[in-house]
Amino acid sequence: MIKTPLKILIAMLFSINCITAFSAEKITLTTQDWAPYQIYNKGLLSGYAVDVVSCALKKMNQPYDIEVYPWRRAQRIVEMDMADGFFTASQNKARDKFATISTVVAEQRWNWYLLKENSINPSDASFKQQAKVGAMLGSNMYSWLKDSGYKIIGSSLTTDALISDLLEKRYDAVLANELVAKNVMKELDLFDDQLKVHKYKNKPLGVYWSNKFLAKRPKFLSKFNTAVKKCR
Fold this sequence. Notes:
Layout: H1 6-23, E1 27-31, E2 39-41, E3 44-46, H2 48-59, E4 64-68, H3 71-79, E5 85-89, H4 93-96, E6 99-101, E7 109-115, H5 127-130, E8 133-136, H6 140-147, E9 152-156, H7 159-167, E10 173-177, H8 178-187, E11 195-202, E12 206-210, H9 211-216, H10 220-231
Parallel strand pairs: 1-4, 1-5, 8-9, 8-10
Antiparallel strand pairs: 2-3, 5-12, 6-12, 7-10, 7-11
Helix pairs in contact: 2-10
């Protein structure tokens, strides 16, 4: 029988405990209530994106918590290193400064929404200078409108509020996510003949992982991306 020196045995047990503790370390993600991607109802979180993210993390045997906040705050919490990532989000330069986006978790299309009687056309050259536009606060759509020189007159906290403000003629046009807007229109009992929709651009959605978190777990993003592809 081969005897293992006590010091080596202690070192081996310490290493095993460290590996176990590291693999079981719980991570925290932040998100927003944004149906149908993320639906928060009576303390339960579901939705297209939630299903994919949860599936991927379970495949990785990665414990996790998901916390729901207003969207701007959800991102700020990660930027302040108080959480490890946020979702679902499309890529932009501001977010790239403190986080790295994953592979695609869900598809997204940006559309322009206008009242039916409004004669302006988002395709016209004069639209950018003349139309009073808005988007959801903290969204990539709002950042893009601002950076692109559109005439932004305000923002709304949620897509529900954005569409409601459009109906009240606060805006000439709003930029919103297609699936989310459809969900809101259904909730508000709006019909297609009440609003005009101009399809604009595709902006896929992923999970933004904190760069500080990824520095500690350099193989994490690659493993997560592989798991996401199996879950979609």
